[in-house]
Amino acid sequence: MANHETREGRGATNRESWAGRRIIAHIDMDAFFASVEVLDDPSLKGKPVIVGGDMKRGVASAASYEARAFGVHSAMPLFQARRLCPNGVFLPVRMERYVGVSRAVMKCLGEFSPLVEQVSVDEAFVDLTGTGHLFGDPERAARSMKTRIGERTSLTCSVGVSVSKLIAKIASDMNKPDGLTIVPPAAVARFLAALPVGRVPGIGGKSGEELAKLGIQRVGDIGKYSPERLEERFGKFGAWLLEIAEGGEGAPVEPYTAPKSISAENTLDEDTADETIIRRCLLEQADRIGRRLREEGFRGRTVTLKLKHHDFRQITRSSTLAEPTQLGGTIYHEALRLLAVYNLGAKVRLVGVGVSNLEPLDAIEEPAQMSLFGASYGAEEKWEKVERATDEIARRFGRGAVKRGSLLEE
Ligand SMILES: [Mg+2]
Question: Are residues 266 and 236 in the same domain?
Fold first, then answer.
């Protein structure tokens, strides 16, 4: 059932004064990849779902709460997850689908504030400062965000609200899933004093052990030591600890700005007019751009070829595709066409390709269309599938594992 608790108790938080303080919310989708899989296949509801690479190697990217009950967690090697949860449903990562849902989530957040900083596919900070006249007090605004995300995506998230990104992030993790934790200004000192240092993002096992040796179990214990002592012992990390203990506001929420174009270029080892070398270069660049377009959820319409001649004379040639693409192959072929039309002649020292006129892949229904692949194969769709599979291999085994045929020819 929904767990809309506020840590500091309801009611009291509403009347707390936020005057002059920032109001930062951290939104974290619950078991995101696994939840999307359950959403797409309701027969998985209530089952331990583990999303990860292939079955023999790799690590779990996400685990449903049912799987977590078996001790499975993300970043756990899959073989271990299998051992703990032999009846689990193990599914491959479908990043493009998660990116599509993620966009819908971020769009919701953007309706509450222009200051939305996406930190990962399923996490974002929202600066709600000064939005009170629109969305009510922070608790009310946070509930509205949860409701709106729920309506648009049918997924739950956990939200933390406080005066800084750090505290908001820690708070969002306190009542998962479907949680809401508000740490108003007046409660910050108390909240931090009692907070186990291990809950602070950035304090890992090793630094946690070091702190424990000094008797620092909770953030409140940090103040037992003088700033000099901490800096002497931990260097910059010590200064950072102090900042946390003092509950400062830290860095502001930095809204994401969408790229206007994605490009790649290389200066050649040697000036050349050899089209084979140039082509190979373009292919590698086009693949790189395609990967970034897919990772960041864009398609681009305009392809630009850039050449710098040995005498530093630079030319660019652009053309616009009939359909926007996120495929390295399509970008490559367009770049080749531009190269052929340009009619090289003199040696070049730099080769580059860019894609602009980007369109975000934002509709939540977009990936649903993609799942129709099996039924209707367009050439572009087929390649999209191939290139996505390639991304997956590269993610698992490293870039070197995937090279196009003509890249290997020497
Ligand atoms: Mg999450």
Answer: no
Task: Tell me, yes or no, if 249 is annotated catalytic.
Answer: no
Domain end among 48, 71, 94: 94
CATH number at residue 53: 3.40.1170.60
211 CA → ligand 1 middle, Å: 27
Question: Which residues are within 8 A (CB) of 391 and not within 5 positions of it... i.e. 6 or more apart?
Answer: 95, 291, 294, 295
In the chain the first and final C-alpha atoms are separated, in Å, by 61
Per-residue pLDDT tens over the stretch 250-259: 888 888 777 8
Separation of CA 74 and ligand 1 centre (Å): 10
Q: How far is residue 407 from each of residues 81, 271, 349, measured CA to CA in Å? A: 37, 19, 19
Residue 214 and residue 283: Cα distance in Å, rounded? 55
3-state secondary structure 301-352: EEEEEEEEECCCCEEEEEEEEEEEECCHHHHHHHHHHHHHHHCCCCCEEEEE
User: Is the pLDDT assigned to residue 358 strictly greater than 80?
Assistant: yes
> Which residues are placed with Cβ below 5 angstroms of ligand 1, an ion?
28-29, 32, 122
Residue 5: predicted pLDDT: 44
Instruction: State residue 387 phi and psi, 5-degree precision.
Output: -70, -30
Candidates 8, 123, 366, 387; catalytic one? 123
Give the phi and the psi of residue 265 in degrees, each rounded to 5. -150, 155
For residue 91, the SS3 value is strand
Q: Which two tokens stand for residue 275?
A: 């089209």
For the stretch 239-286, pLDDT in tens is: 888 888 888 778 888 887 778 999 999 999 999 999 999 999 999 999
Q: How far is the CA of 200 from the centre of ligand 1 (A)?
A: 16
